[in-house]
Structures are given as C-alpha cells and as structure tokens.
Description:
This protein is mostly helical and 503 residues long.
Amino acid sequence: MVTVSKKNRGEWGSRVGFIMAAIGSAVGLGNIWRFPYTAASNGGGAFLIPYMVALLTAGIPILILEFGLGHKIRSSAPGVFRSLNKKWQAFGWWQTAISFAITVYYMVVIAWAMSYLKFAFTTGWGEDTKGFLFGTYLNLSDSPLHLGGLNLKVVIPLLIIWGINFIVLRMGIKGGIEKASKIFMPLLVLSLIAITVRGVTLPGAAKGLEYFFKPDFSRLADPKVWVAAYGQIFYSLSIAFGIMLAYSSYLPKDSDIVNNAFITGLGNCSFSILSGIGVFSILGYMAHTQGVEVSEVASAGVGLAFIVFPKAISALPGMNSLFGVTFFLSLLFAGISSSISLVETVLSAIIDNFGMERRKALNIVVLVGLCTSLIFATGAGLYILDIVDHYINNYGVAVAGLIEIILLSWFFNLESIREYVNPLSDFKIGKWWNFCLKFLTPAILGVMTVKNIIGDISSPYEGYSMNAIALYGGGFMLGTILLAVILPKFVKVNDKTETEKEV
C-alpha cells in the first residue's frame, strides 16, 4: 500500500502559460485532418451552427466543470473522483488508463509527421504517395495479425518524440510544460497562418472554400449532423480522460475558471476553422488542376495528411518544399503539445497517488509507454493503430465522458461547483450550465454511444477480422479496465495527510 501525498505538485507560472498549455492539449492532429472533412461532409458552413451550439452547450460547460473540480480538489483524475466518492476512484484510474492508451499510438503518428518533415525538403515521397506511405515507409504487412517486425524508419523518430516529451516533462510544470507551450503554440499559429495564406492564393482555392463553407441548411434537420458536431467538439477538447483535471489542478488559487474555459474552447475552435480554410484551399487547388470535383480529392485522417497533402505539395508551383516543411511542422507542433498533456495526465496520477518522486515516475511512464508504442511501429502498425484508435475513442473516451457527466450531474451536488467557480470568475455562469450538463449533454453522448454500438454490430469496423478486432480493440479496452480495477488496491488514503476537500 502507498499513502497518498500531494507535496511539491508544481504550479503554472502565469495564466497565459496555462491557457497556452490547455489550448495546446486541445489542438491536435484532429483539428487539422478531422474537423475540415467533418464540416464539409455535414453541411459545410451550416455545420458551424450545430458546432457552435455543441461548443456552448457541451464543450465549454464540461471544461468549466473539469477546471473547477481540478482547481478545487487539486489532484489528478483518480484523486478528484476519490474525493467525491471513494467508490469512484476506479473511474478516475480508467480515465488515466485511456489517456495512456491514446498516448502510445498518438506518439507513432507524430513520429510519422517527423519523418515526413524530412521527406518534405526533397518531396521524397515521389509521385505515388499512397504506395510510398504503405510500402516504402511503413512496410505495411498483409494483415493486422502479421506483425512483420519492427520498422526502424518509424522506431527512430518515435524514440526522438518520446525523448522530447521526457525532456520537457522532466523540467516540471512551470519550467517544462509552460515554457514548451509558449514555444510550440506560437509556432503552430504561424505555421497554420502560412499554410492558409499560401492556400488561398492558389488557383482553385475558391472552389475548395466554397465546398467547405457553402451552407446546406437542409442538413440541419438531420440528427446525424448534430451528433457529428457534438462528437467533433467532444473529441477535440481533451475532455473526459483526465487531462483538464490534471492541468487545472496546477492553477493558482485565484484563477478565473470560467474565462479560462471560454478562452480554451474558443481558441480550439478558431484553430479548427483556420485549419479548414488552409486544407480546403489546397484541396480546391488539387481539384482544379485535376479537373475533378473537390469531393473527389477530399478525405480525412491519415489519408489526408500523408497521401493527399504530399501529392498536393508536389504539384504546387514554386517553393513546394517550403510549403511541405511548413505543413508537417504544424502537424509536429500540434502533436507534441497534445502528447505532453497526455503523458502529464498519467504522470500526475502516479505522483499524486503513489507519492513517487517526479523523475522516477517519469522514467517508468516513458519506459513502459515507449515499449508499448513499438507494436505500432511494426509492419502491421497502421492496422493496429486504426483499430485501437476506433475502439478507444468510441468505447473509451465517449463512454467515459457519458459516465462522468452522469456521475457528476446526477449523483453529486453539481451546484456546488457553480457556486465555487462564480466568485473566482469575472463572467458568472447561470442555471443554463446545470441544465446542459444534467440533461442535454448526456442525451447527446448516449445517442452517440448507441449509434457507435449499432454500427459496429451491423458490420465489423473497416472490414477487419473479428480476431484482429478482439485482439487489439478488445485487448486495449480490457487493459484499461483492468488497470482501473487493480490500481486503486495499491493506494492507501491517510486522512491525516490527505488534503483533498469534500466538495
């Protein structure tokens, strides 16, 4: 048994530092490669209406809730939920385990971006960008169950990415995460602005922007569009898997909780829209040069970043290498800022609950995380990553979010958090906040969860075999649940040293 300790947890040096770190966590690869396609395929400009409604009724209310809880209780997810109800500690550990699961495959995608940054100097991906990604670079095997050995072209940048996280986190909250955020976030903004400016000046850019922004208001009557909007907000704000609870626990006692939540939420959405303008300007150019519709070149995820965009970069007139470097630098900055928050979530939980010295805890997290990441650096890595990402997001993050909202809205005095954050904040929140969290958000998350379950039952995800889905999707999900059940048994709370407050 280990006694809970909260000595020397660290604290943000400034409000700006916290805001940059929180936005840096929220702004990730999904803002660049998921949001634009989701918006364009769900009503274009009209999608921004349910998107903003989702932000104001789910995203920001949950941010206020998590900022308030983390700030008041001053602990990571397991400690926060334990202080509310001792039986809930396992749920806090489940959120932490989900963060760890996301970390180990997210690092690999950042490693791909680092490799492509090098390729961008010479457009080394050639003409067949799909063949280059799957064959030359990833050495993709013929099935998820055929690992095919480690791929050093992925392993080496993976080691570097874990190394960067190790160095930043070793320096602590103020000296490491805050300073890194003040470097990475301005660079990310500059990179995205450069991409957008270059994109909108290309022939055909207007065609892409029309596809992105042209409103189809008839789609607002489609419930699937609203579910997509709430899903995008939920997945892009780093909520419900322990990150914002950990980050807000390092805030000074007089911090403005509500304004911080609004700035973080609106900042994240601004990045998404800016990314959309840049992405669809380039896709419009591609469609223009190929004489096809934008819909024929538009895609999301790995395909957009590592197949479609390299092809577009190669076709750009003049200084295409510079544009390619800028694009993959933006992916790199977005990825690293998010990965730092993911690792810190796990790290803070271990430090808070096992009384471990920060550097020792960091050594363990990085070593275990790196070793686990290696399975995604094999010949089957892309398949495994795709399966794990689908099941962790749909049955980890989404379900954890639903459970969190139900627990805190229906089995806890939600009003006490509103009463806590309002005196600290210039902008006071009213009863609308309680309504959103108690009724609206859980209803939407419930629909999302049921929809995901029905979809996966009706047909196996992406046609993968049930053996592969059970092994990787089921295996990682089972792993997070086992950790949540086992870890609380090793934590002993001493009432004389426990400084958590009853909320």
